[in-house]
Amino acid sequence: MATTSRVPAAVDALLAIVQALPALAGVRIVDGPPTVNLTDPDRIHVGWQPGAESAVSLQQQWNAAGARTRDEMFAIACYAESRSGDTDMAVRRQRLFAMVAAVEQALRATTAAPEAPTLNGTVLWCELTTGDLSQWQSEGANAGLNFTVACRARI
Prior knowledge:
The chain is of the alpha+beta class. Helices cover 20% and strands 37% of the residues. Strands 1, 2, 3, 4, 5 and 6 form a six-stranded mixed sheet that branches.
């Protein structure tokens, strides 16, 4: 069956990779937006950011003359949050960036696996790109980070 986009497979693969990370044991990993008022102290959403208009933004274009294959570039919206009952913002910020670092490390090539990260073969490459940190005090310290996983695929 021909595919018109690698987005669904890539989002599913990113979600599976994040769910399997030992460094994120105890972190709630959410597929898309919250369905209830989540009170977990630490969580990561794949395919959602607070206030974002889209879960994934994408573009496609022909990759060569002949119009047989297309290049697809897309950005998967993600969000991480860490909260506690105390008011120590530095601890929340450190925890938040440790969670996102685990995701970023999973998307990096290594000496043992030098090929570009491919989200289990669903894309040509991917990388964690942009991020926006938010901090607030509401029943304790809260830190949130909107971040984006950029991908390139051939369809």
